[in-house]
Design a protein that fits this description.
The protein is an alpha/beta fold and 185 residues long. It contains 3 helices and 8 strands. It has a 4-stranded mixed beta sheet, covered by helices on one side. A 4-stranded mixed beta sheet has the order 4-6-5-7. A hairpin with a 5-residue loop joins strand 1 and strand 2. It is elongated, with a radius of gyration of 20 Å.
Protein backbone atom coordinates (compact mmCIF):
# COMPACT_ATOMS: atom_id res chain seq x y z
CA UNK A 1 0.00 0.00 0.00
CA UNK A 2 1.25 3.44 -0.89
CA UNK A 3 1.94 5.98 1.83
CA UNK A 4 0.00 9.23 1.74
CA UNK A 5 1.67 12.17 3.44
CA UNK A 6 -0.33 15.17 4.60
CA UNK A 7 1.22 18.57 5.21
CA UNK A 8 -0.42 20.12 8.26
CA UNK A 9 0.13 23.76 9.18
CA UNK A 10 0.01 24.44 12.91
CA UNK A 11 -0.33 27.94 14.37
CA UNK A 12 0.81 28.51 17.94
CA UNK A 13 2.54 30.94 20.28
CA UNK A 14 6.32 30.36 20.30
CA UNK A 15 8.94 31.74 22.67
CA UNK A 16 11.98 33.06 20.75
CA UNK A 17 15.64 33.36 21.82
CA UNK A 18 15.07 36.72 23.55
CA UNK A 19 12.22 35.35 25.66
CA UNK A 20 9.53 37.19 23.73
CA UNK A 21 6.49 35.40 22.43
CA UNK A 22 5.27 35.52 18.86
CA UNK A 23 2.61 33.68 16.93
CA UNK A 24 4.05 31.38 14.28
CA UNK A 25 2.70 28.91 11.73
CA UNK A 26 4.84 25.88 10.94
CA UNK A 27 4.25 22.94 8.57
CA UNK A 28 4.55 19.32 9.72
CA UNK A 29 4.17 16.07 7.79
CA UNK A 30 2.01 13.16 8.96
CA UNK A 31 1.33 9.79 7.37
CA UNK A 32 -2.42 9.15 7.36
CA UNK A 33 -5.23 7.49 5.41
CA UNK A 34 -7.50 10.55 5.23
CA UNK A 35 -7.73 14.23 6.06
CA UNK A 36 -9.68 13.36 9.20
CA UNK A 37 -7.01 10.97 10.41
CA UNK A 38 -4.29 13.52 9.53
CA UNK A 39 -6.05 16.12 11.69
CA UNK A 40 -6.41 13.66 14.55
CA UNK A 41 -2.77 12.56 14.32
CA UNK A 42 -1.32 16.09 14.14
CA UNK A 43 -3.43 17.06 17.19
CA UNK A 44 -2.05 14.06 19.06
CA UNK A 45 1.58 14.65 17.99
CA UNK A 46 1.55 18.39 18.68
CA UNK A 47 -0.08 17.97 22.10
CA UNK A 48 3.12 16.24 23.20
CA UNK A 49 5.25 19.23 22.13
CA UNK A 50 3.06 22.30 22.71
CA UNK A 51 1.60 22.86 26.17
CA UNK A 52 -0.47 25.91 25.19
CA UNK A 53 -3.31 25.98 22.69
CA UNK A 54 -2.62 25.63 18.98
CA UNK A 55 -4.68 25.71 15.81
CA UNK A 56 -4.46 23.62 12.65
CA UNK A 57 -4.83 26.13 9.84
CA UNK A 58 -4.39 23.93 6.77
CA UNK A 59 -4.11 20.27 5.73
CA UNK A 60 -3.17 19.22 2.21
CA UNK A 61 -1.76 16.15 0.50
CA UNK A 62 2.01 16.49 0.17
CA UNK A 63 3.64 15.61 -3.15
CA UNK A 64 6.48 13.41 -1.85
CA UNK A 65 7.24 10.02 -3.36
CA UNK A 66 9.55 9.06 -0.49
CA UNK A 67 10.75 10.38 2.88
CA UNK A 68 14.35 9.66 3.91
CA UNK A 69 15.53 10.53 7.42
CA UNK A 70 19.26 10.59 8.22
CA UNK A 71 20.97 10.71 11.60
CA UNK A 72 22.61 13.90 12.89
CA UNK A 73 20.66 16.05 10.44
CA UNK A 74 18.32 18.78 11.60
CA UNK A 75 16.64 20.13 8.45
CA UNK A 76 14.51 18.70 5.65
CA UNK A 77 15.27 19.28 1.97
CA UNK A 78 13.02 18.77 -1.05
CA UNK A 79 14.93 16.98 -3.83
CA UNK A 80 13.53 17.00 -7.33
CA UNK A 81 14.62 13.82 -9.14
CA UNK A 82 13.99 13.46 -12.88
CA UNK A 83 13.77 9.86 -14.03
CA UNK A 84 14.80 9.52 -17.66
CA UNK A 85 13.10 6.99 -19.94
CA UNK A 86 13.35 6.41 -23.67
CA UNK A 87 10.00 6.33 -25.48
CA UNK A 88 10.42 3.77 -28.27
CA UNK A 89 7.31 4.84 -30.20
CA UNK A 90 8.19 8.51 -30.54
CA UNK A 91 11.96 8.03 -30.32
CA UNK A 92 12.21 10.75 -27.70
CA UNK A 93 13.58 10.84 -24.19
CA UNK A 94 10.92 11.37 -21.54
CA UNK A 95 11.38 12.80 -18.05
CA UNK A 96 9.22 11.94 -15.08
CA UNK A 97 9.73 14.07 -11.99
CA UNK A 98 9.34 12.89 -8.42
CA UNK A 99 10.06 14.67 -5.16
CA UNK A 100 11.93 13.22 -2.19
CA UNK A 101 12.06 14.71 1.29
CA UNK A 102 15.60 14.14 2.55
CA UNK A 103 17.03 15.06 5.93
CA UNK A 104 20.42 16.85 5.91
CA UNK A 105 22.35 19.76 7.43
CA UNK A 106 23.00 21.68 4.19
CA UNK A 107 22.32 21.52 0.45
CA UNK A 108 25.52 19.62 -0.36
CA UNK A 109 24.70 16.97 2.22
CA UNK A 110 21.13 16.82 0.88
CA UNK A 111 22.55 16.17 -2.60
CA UNK A 112 24.83 13.45 -1.22
CA UNK A 113 21.92 11.88 0.70
CA UNK A 114 19.70 11.97 -2.39
CA UNK A 115 22.46 10.33 -4.44
CA UNK A 116 22.90 7.61 -1.80
CA UNK A 117 19.13 6.96 -1.78
CA UNK A 118 19.05 6.71 -5.58
CA UNK A 119 22.20 4.58 -5.98
CA UNK A 120 20.20 1.36 -6.41
CA UNK A 121 18.10 2.82 -9.22
CA UNK A 122 18.39 0.86 -12.45
CA UNK A 123 17.40 3.70 -14.79
CA UNK A 124 19.02 7.01 -15.54
CA UNK A 125 18.10 10.00 -13.44
CA UNK A 126 19.20 13.54 -12.72
CA UNK A 127 18.77 15.82 -9.73
CA UNK A 128 17.83 19.22 -11.19
CA UNK A 129 16.87 20.93 -7.92
CA UNK A 130 17.30 20.73 -4.17
CA UNK A 131 15.80 23.31 -1.85
CA UNK A 132 15.33 23.62 1.88
CA UNK A 133 11.85 22.62 2.92
CA UNK A 134 9.89 24.52 5.56
CA UNK A 135 8.79 21.16 7.07
CA UNK A 136 9.65 21.18 10.78
CA UNK A 137 9.19 17.47 11.53
CA UNK A 138 7.83 14.24 10.06
CA UNK A 139 5.47 11.88 11.90
CA UNK A 140 5.20 8.49 10.17
CA UNK A 141 2.32 6.15 10.98
CA UNK A 142 3.00 3.12 13.14
CA UNK A 143 0.14 1.04 14.51
CA UNK A 144 2.13 -0.07 17.57
CA UNK A 145 2.17 -3.73 16.57
CA UNK A 146 5.26 -5.73 17.53
CA UNK A 147 6.79 -5.81 14.04
CA UNK A 148 6.35 -2.08 13.59
CA UNK A 149 8.08 -1.22 16.87
CA UNK A 150 11.38 -2.19 15.26
CA UNK A 151 10.49 -0.08 12.20
CA UNK A 152 9.67 2.93 14.43
CA UNK A 153 12.99 2.57 16.31
CA UNK A 154 14.85 2.37 12.98
CA UNK A 155 13.06 5.49 11.66
CA UNK A 156 13.87 7.46 14.82
CA UNK A 157 17.48 6.23 14.78
CA UNK A 158 17.84 7.32 11.16
CA UNK A 159 16.40 10.75 11.98
CA UNK A 160 19.38 11.25 14.31
CA UNK A 161 22.11 9.58 12.20
CA UNK A 162 24.65 10.82 9.67
CA UNK A 163 25.00 9.22 6.23
CA UNK A 164 28.15 7.30 5.45
CA UNK A 165 30.66 9.08 3.21
CA UNK A 166 29.97 8.56 -0.47
CA UNK A 167 32.65 7.01 -2.61
CA UNK A 168 32.92 8.51 -6.08
CA UNK A 169 32.50 5.76 -8.66
CA UNK A 170 33.46 6.33 -12.27
CA UNK A 171 31.00 4.82 -14.73
CA UNK A 172 32.81 3.39 -17.74
CA UNK A 173 29.82 1.54 -19.20
CA UNK A 174 28.72 2.21 -22.74
CA UNK A 175 25.06 2.48 -23.63
CA UNK A 176 23.61 -0.34 -25.66
CA UNK A 177 21.50 0.49 -28.67
CA UNK A 178 19.08 -2.37 -27.98
CA UNK A 179 15.68 -1.21 -26.72
CA UNK A 180 15.18 -1.56 -22.96
CA UNK A 181 11.97 -2.34 -21.17
CA UNK A 182 10.20 0.76 -19.99
CA UNK A 183 10.12 1.03 -16.21
CA UNK A 184 6.75 1.60 -14.61
CA UNK A 185 6.84 4.68 -12.38
Amino acid sequence: MSTTWYECKVKYRKTDETGGQKITTEPYLVDALSYTEAESRINEEMSAYISEEFKITNIKVANYAEIHPFENADRWFRSKVSLLAYDEESGKERKTNMYLLVQANDVKEAYDNTTSVMKGTMGDYSIPAISESPIMDVFPYFSGEEGELEQLERFNALKGSKPEALVEVMDHMEFETAPEEEAVV
